[in-house]
Amino acid sequence: MRELVKKLIPRNLFHTIEPYGHWAEAILANIVYGFPARKLKVIGVTGTDGKTTTSTLITAMLRDSGYKVGMMTTISLDLGDGPIPNPTRLTTVTSFSLQRGLKKLAKAKVDWVILETTSHALAQHRVWGVPYSVVAMTNMSHEHLDYHRTFENYREAKIRLFKLCNANIKGLQIGVANVDDATGELFAREIQNPVRYGVEKGEVRAVKSTTTTKGSTIQVRTPAGELSLTVNLPGSFNIYNALAAAAVGQALGLSNQQIEKGIASLDAVEGRMTTIDEGQDFSVIVDYAHTPGSFDKIFNEILPVTKGRLIVVFGSAGRRDESKRPLQGEVAGRLCDVVIITQEDDRDQDGEQIMNQIAEGSERAGKTRNKDLFLVHDRKRAIGKAIEMAKAGDTVLLLGKGHEKSILSNFGKKDWDEMGAARKALQSLKK
């Protein structure tokens, strides 16, 4: 029905009235399922990057401390009886699915629910009726401007999570904000009890850290004493995710020992800096990074530990923020040795057009087609090309799909396994 309405109403007008339809849907869903969130304690996590990893770290920490925890993230839904893959492609599911899941969690009598909360869900009132007790923001960068129109609108949608938490007078009204991020202080101002974290500043602050290809060790200064965190997730950006989780743990009254042990208990997050090893003499890493900001972080992370070339494979989603495509291409073209552009989820857009929009940015950064810039629409072939090109000491980065199990095109949904495709390509080298 919503798709029919979108076709009948001009796009600019639809975006004006759309939230009210979602709001009504959320109210109805709460009524149908009996306002289940009122029986739960909810922790919300928002931001451009790092939401899933931070949510998973918080979940691991609480579970290791003996709590019964439900979790709803981009990757999986755990409604009290074990995790299952999130089949919806929505980080925060629709109002009826959300309330149905929350009712199941209330019936399971979980102690805490970790709810990854997107700007779309906040702008569309999908989480209406959810009384957040504690919330956290990871960072803000260029994303979803196809929907929000401006970065300011995008930021204000995210900040709404902190406002919702502050309105819950029965909750803890605690908001954990990354104040190294340019927008962090704006989030902190909207909450009764702000907790600021960062590497450069904040009450919860990393004063010393060591990062390797396997993870990080961090000395953290907090109002409740020093923490020594072991983070078994590669990438220095995971220092921020661990700091956010630790700040949430302290807000909930966990001991420093519980926080340290809980964060160290998480070994991996599916499709997030996942290393694929089939005995080859070069590195292959799968990650969900799909924004210009996350590209910049991951390339600068991998470059210092790569002896050879950095080869990247990625695309950009159809019917999503078109303005980020040349920005993705520019970052990749500037920081990577070889750029291979492919499909991500074309949906009903022309895949060749999407690839060319990305390529414009790479060419501006100095890349030349068929020399160090290649457009290969079939993602399986693109991955195969990258792996065939790789030599000893190189790093191949496969970005944008991560954990996702399908590719969306004008022909429908096709099953996809990024890590499986990488393994098959590596195994074919031995034949």
Overview of the molecule:
- The chain folds into two domains: 2-264, Mur-like, catalytic domain (UDP-N-acetylmuramoyl-L-alanine:D-glutamate ligase, 3-Layer(aba) Sandwich); 274-428, Mur ligase, C-terminal domain (Protein-Tyrosine Phosphatase, Chain A), CATH 3.90.190.20.
- The protein is 39% helix and 22% strand.
- It contains 15 helices and 19 strands.
- The strands form three sheets. Strands 4-3-2-5-1-6-7-8-9-10-11 form an eleven-stranded mixed sheet, with helices on both faces.
- Helix 2 packs parallel to helix 4 (95-107), helix 11 (292-302) packs parallel to helix 12 (325-335) and helix 14 packs across helix 15.
- It is globular, with a radius of gyration of 21 Å.
- The termini are far apart.
- Residues 1-11 have low confidence and may be disordered.
- Describe the main β-sheet briefly: 11 strands, mixed
Assign the CATH superfamily of the largest domain.
Mur-like, catalytic domain
User: Total domains, how many?
Assistant: 2
Helix run count? 15
| CATH-derived topology of the largest domain | UDP-N-acetylmuramoyl-L-alanine:D-glutamate ligase
The helix fraction, in percent, is 25-40%
**C-alpha Rg, in Å?**
21 Å
CATH architecture title of the largest domain: 3-Layer(aba) Sandwich
E-strand count: 19
Give the CA-CA distance, first to last residue: 51 Å
SS-based structural class? Answer: alpha/beta
Strand content: 15-25%
Q: Averaging pLDDT over every residue, what do you get?
A: 89
* Unreliable stretches covering 5 or more consecutive residues: 1-11
Top CATH class of the largest domain: Alpha Beta
C-alpha geometry: globular
The largest sheet has its strands arranged as: 4-3-2-5-1-6-7-8-9-10-11
